[in-house]
Hints:
Number of strands: 2
Distance between the termini: 172 Å
Strand order of the largest sheet: 1-2
Number of helices: 27
Amino acid sequence: MLSAKVRRKIAPSNGETDNSADKQEQLLLSATICNGEDLGPFVRKAFASGKPETLLHNLRHFARSKESEIEEVCKAHYQDFILAVDDLRSLLSDVDSLKSSLSDSNSKLQSVAGPLLTSLDSYLEAQTVSHNVNLALSLIFSCIKLSELCSRSNYHLSRGNFYMALKCVDSIETEFLDKTPSSTLKRMLEKKIPEIRSHIERNVSKEFGDWLVEIRVVSRNLGQLAIGQASAARQREEDLRIKQRQAEEQSRLSLRDCVYALQEEEEDGLSGVMGDDGKDGYGNGGGNGLLGFDLTPLYRAYHIHQTLGLEDRFKQYYFENRKLQLTSDFQVSSMTPFLESHQTFFAQIAGFFIVEDQILRTGGDLISRMEVENLWETAVSKMCSVLEDQFSRMQTANHLLLIKDYVSLLGVTLRRYGYPVDALLDVLSKHRDKYHELLLSDCRTQIAEALAADKFEQMLMKKEYEYSMNVLSFQLQTSDIVPAFPYVAPFSTTVPDCCRIVRSFIEDSVSFMSHGGQLEFFDVVKKYLDRLLSEVLDEALLKLINASVHGVSQAMQVAANMAVLERACDFFFRHAAQLSGIPLRMAERGRRQFPLNNARDAAEEMLSGLLKQKVDGFMTLLENVNWMADEPTQSGNEYVNEVMIYLETLVSTAQQILPVPVLKRVMQDVLSHISEMIVGALLGDSVKRFNVNAIMGIDVDIRLLESFADNQAALLSDGDAKQFKTALAEARQLINLLLSNHPENFLNPVIRERSYNTLDYRKVMTVSEKLRDPSDRLFGTFGSRAARQNPKKKSLDTLIKRLKDAS
């Protein structure tokens, strides 16, 4: 305050008006000193100008001006100072008395406080000792805790509880390492803690390495089990569909008194493979002790590396090793046929991705979904490549089917875990044609062997199971009544053998087409079934008929077989529809003609041809007919009697094995041939002429044949019996014309269409001319009779003339 006041009092005066430079400089110097500013510029200026005396003079002047001010201040305060001194002197006596009093009090205090000070010193010393003891105790407790943690860490290490050991080590490092009073112990801990962590990492890595080796075997077993359960589930579905088809068939047959209950068994799933997800921290999240599907070493290693702060490194290490394992799984041994190793190959891959799916769902962030998808894409690409290569080499349909079935089961198994398998199914569909071509080739060989072993004898069945196996299983029966045994079937062993081959073809074809991603495949199965029947079986039967059939009994057996095969073909298409899951009504809606038409026609033609040859042997007796007989025969000519005996014997034998339609067609063809032979005999050069008596004898022969046809009414319907007689129409109409009183009616279109529609006018003209022979006694004349002409002869002449004019 005084300083501030002084400064205000010593402000430079502006009263002087001296304009000299020294005065101004003196004023500036005074102002600078009063303001506490730097005097350096003044000093430099003084020495620079060479006049430091002026600066000294100004400084002395300023000092003198300040001395006067000091004096004024002192004068202003001196009076107060004198008064204060007087007050102090007045207090001096009081101070002396107080001093003596204090001295006495001090003496008394010293005498009294001496023992107390001694006690205080003892107390302070005891307090110091107590503090040191407490500090020592706290350090001992800390060392005890540290020793306990070290002991616990060693215990966990010895028991393999690495995580707990790491937690102990972390506690030692964070809580005790910096507070350890022993430098030796601290150095030991600083050295051992990294060694312990390194030891734990090595042991966990070794366990993880052992797990990597073990999981390959486990994956293969796991894949085989999973695919096996998928196969069992598929079989249950097939059994259920069979029961459903049986129920539908029973319903279709209107067996309303039966009650059918279809019970579907519950799927076990992969209960034996996958367990509960709720496990402890190291639980496998779905392991199975029986299979050794234990993820504990993996999760333990992952957790330990997380605790060590090495999570990212372990995740990368795990992914790279699993990728290498998958790559090694892709190796296909060239020393072992793929047919023998394909199950192991695909099961290994299936088990790999089942394990990865479980790890993805329960392993936290150990592996990402993107990484699993990348591995799966690699696996699918490699599997497709392997399948393409192996399928291209295979030349056996059954081998291809076995691999296809296993691959489809692999697809079903892995689809349950969310893996896309469309690429694998596309490869299977791509080789559909090759498989069926190989299957057709196998069936062609089997059918050829079955036909070559046929003895053209009716099949004998001694037991009911044989009947069920060879007849009922192919729906070849014509009646629901089980026959008595031993039973002689109308067909030979070729029929059930071929049926088994075709049924096996259908089942193999359906097996290949089903479970391949294509829902409706009946049209494909039907197409290849048509090819099997029309190209393979039909051609084989044609070859058999043309090369191996040499007798009537063989031809008859083949024809009987063809009739049974016609019923079997209906069963084949129904069976294919049922296996394909197509309603029978829809399958029957798309039915086509009998695919073995060529073989059936050839068999019937062969039978007819052989029968005609037999008949031709009897028809040679036409040469013994007396064409100029004096009177007509009443019992038929010799040839027709022989033919009748043969035909009756033939029919009685044929009706045992030949179906009625086949017998009708064959016999109709034979009768038509007999009719042609009769007409041919009348047209032939060997018969130069004949009379009415011979024609009447032929008429008797034809009536005998017609009566034979009528006698078949019990075997055939009335309409079929009439058709039988139509086979003799040409011979019958020709004889009727020759015996007619007005043969020229043949020229009437209406009468011709009604009564002579099968006759050719050229044949009529040739035969009529032979009846017109002048040497014929029927038209001979004597004497006056020459003037009269027989009306029938006149009509016949007119017919001949008109026919010649028309030709």
